[in-house]
Q: What sequence folds into this?
């Protein structure tokens, strides 16, 4: 027991792609570019929807929360990832690793649950349009967000605590560039079946249950759209839901493949590339998906760019 406790306080070594330095150089550039896209895109969505009074609706309230969540998620991960990819120092302190583990698990769970809440919002808007603003009132929207964060925090505390309590017998080599739960489980020196079953059980709660609710919501939405007599109404409903459904498909497909498969079924580097995909690609795609298919958001972004341009002109005048 003393040996296990002593080993748990050691720094961890994140192996990442250290066996392929050229790949690390390429990936560091790719990660940096996508991180900048994520920062600019999601920040623009937040400010554009706040400044445009037409976008002060439940749908855009949840979209702002999704953008804020993506900003937090990528910022909590990418700086450490870049440190790991750029330099020869692959170590991370025990405390830093623990913080990464809890924060990443909490934010990842929150995104899954938030997408389920957004599907309920779309269901209400299309299936009960006359009662939409009454049902989706600000108080209920706020309660939903609090519930999403509460469930995510509780599940991350349970899963991460179970994982950190596994004895490692001095093993501090993580075959990853992040302190991720699957990588932490792999370095345990005992049978991890119980923990893997716990991960699977909570995965059903945090991943599959929201996915089921999303599918049910879209089942009702499809029925409502098919009953619409107006082709314009059908197109508007499809465009409104298409963005959300695209994000759901990409995110859930990746997360389910990542976390709800047997522990040793993935190849050595498969989990690392999947992590890169859902930590840097998906958050950068969300702003594009929601703006390219949404006329109101495009108009709001144009207004934001116009305000920024006018501000820049005034600032130059003041300086001159």
A:
């Amino acid at each position: 027991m003393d040996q296990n406790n002593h080993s748990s306080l050691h720094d961890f070594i994140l192996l990442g792609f250290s066996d392929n330095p050229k790949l690390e150089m390429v990936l560091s550039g790719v990660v940096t570019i996508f991180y900048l896209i994520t920062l600019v895109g999601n920040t623009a969505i937040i400010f554009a929807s706040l400044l445009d009074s037409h976008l002060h609706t439940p749908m855009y309230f949840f979209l702002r929360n999704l953008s804020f969540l993506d900003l937090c998620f990528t910022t909590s991960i990418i700086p450490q990832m870049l440190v790991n990819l750029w330099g020869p120092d692959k170590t991370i302190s025990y405390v830093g690793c623990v913080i990464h583990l809890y924060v990443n698990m909490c934010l990842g769970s929150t995104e899954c649950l938030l997408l389920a809440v957004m599907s309920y919002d779309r269901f209400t808007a299309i299936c009960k349009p006359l009662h939409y603003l009454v049902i989706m009132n600000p108080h209920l929207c706020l309660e939903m967000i609090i519930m999403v964060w509460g469930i995510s925090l509780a599940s991350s505390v349970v899963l991460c605590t179970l994982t950190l309590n596994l004895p490692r017998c001095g093993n501090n080599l993580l075959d990853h560039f992040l302190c991720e739960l699957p990588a932490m489980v792999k370095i345990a020196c005992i049978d991890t079946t119980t923990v893997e079953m716990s991960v699977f059980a909570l995965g059903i709660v945090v991943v599959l249950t929201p996915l089921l609710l999303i599918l049910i919501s879209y089942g009702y939405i499809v029925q409502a759209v098919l009953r619409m007599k107006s082709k314009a109404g059908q197109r508007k409903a499809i465009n409104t839901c298409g963005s959300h459904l695209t994000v759901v498909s990409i995110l859930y497909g990746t997360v389910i493949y990542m976390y709800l498969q047997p522990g040793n079924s993935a190849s050595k580097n498969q989990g690392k590339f999947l992590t890169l995909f859902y930590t840097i690609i998906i958050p950068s795609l969300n702003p594009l998906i929601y703006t390219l298919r949404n006329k109101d958001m495009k108009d709001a972004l144009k207004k934001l760019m116009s305000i920024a341009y006018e501000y820049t002109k005034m600032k130059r005048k003041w300086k001159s």
